[in-house]
Amino acid sequence: ALREEGNDMFAVISDLHSNISALEVVLQDIESLGITDLICLGDVVGYGPQPLECVDMVMEKCRVCLKGNHDEALVHGAYAFNLRAQKAIEWTRDQLKPGFFSGSAVRRRWEFLTNLPLRHEEGPDLFIHGSPRDPTNEYILATEIGFGPTEKFEEIFASFERFLFVGHTHMPCIITDKYETKTSTELNNVYEFPDMAEHKAIINVGSVGQPRDRDNRACYVVVDGNTVKWRRVEYDIERTTKIMDSIAQLDQALAARLKEGI
How far apart, in whole angstroms, are the C-alpha atoms of residue 229 and residue 124? Predict the structure, then answer.
C-alpha cells in the first residue's frame, strides 16, 4: 500500500508498548492535524498493560506496521531480554495467543502480529524499527557518533537515499550523513532537511508509550515534504500506571519509568 497522491503529510509512530492512554491521545492529535496516513515502526506490545487495545487500534488506523523486537519476542520468545521485559512479554503472550476455543478476533490479532514486515520502503525513504543491518534488535544511538564514519554507520547510510525512520531507542533525534546529531529538543522539535546533512538523515521518531528522554509526554513525528516535526502530547499516565500496578507480572519499575520519562 502506497501513500495517496496529493497528500504528502504523514505521521510516524513507534514503541507504543501496550499503552492505550498514550496511543489514543496521539491518534487524536494526528486527526486534529487532518492527517490520515499513519505508519507504525513497531513495538506495539511489551511493558504496558493494554496490548489487545493497542493491537486493535493499530490494525484499524495504520497503513503500515512493522515488527519491533517486542513484537518478535511475543511470537518467538524473549531470549535476549532482561527479566522485567521478559515477564511482561510472557504476560502479554498469555493475553494474546489464541487457544483451542479462541474466536476470530483473537486469531486475527495473532496473525497480524505474526506477519508484521521487517521493513518498508517508500520512494527515497526507509522505515524500520531498529536498524537496516538488524531490523528488530540493533540500536542506532546518537551517542555512538564520535569523530566521523564507522563501518556500522557507513553500512546504515548506504541502505537508504533520503530519510531513515527508526524507533527502538525511544530517544527522538536526528543523525545526518555528515555525522551531525541533535535531539528533538535541541531542534525545537523541527528539522528542515537537508540542514546539517549532505544527502541523508536518520530520524528517530521517539516513543508513544514509553518516552525515555526525560520528557514523559508521548512522542511521534509528522512529515511534510522535507519538514519533520516531533509532536509531544500529554496523556493520563495515572490511568496506565494504575492498571499496571494491578498486574503482578508487570514490574513496578516499568510504571515508575512512565512518570519520569526515563
Answer: 19
Residues 21, 206 contacting (CB under 8 angstroms): no
| Amino acid at residue number 155 | E
Residues 220 and 25 sit within 8 Å (Cβ to Cβ): no
Q: Please, what's the largest Cα pairwise distance for the chain?
A: 58
Nearest to 184 by CA among 198, 201, 160, 200: 201
Distance of CA 186 to the CA centre of its chain: 21
**Dist. CA 78–CA 70, nearest whole Å:** 8
pTM higher than 0.85 for the full model?
yes
Task: Supply φ then ψ for residue 15, to 5 degrees.
Answer: 50, 60
From the list 207, 253, 204, the residue with the least C-alpha distance to 233 is 207
Check if the beta carbon of residue 156 is closer than 8 Å to that of residue 131.
Answer: yes
Question: Which residue type sits at 156?
Answer: I
pLDDT tens sequence across 20-37: 999 999 999 999 999 999
Question: One-letter amino acid identity for 63?
Answer: R
Torsion-angle region of 51 (φ positive above 0: left; ψ -120 to 50: alpha; else: beta): alpha
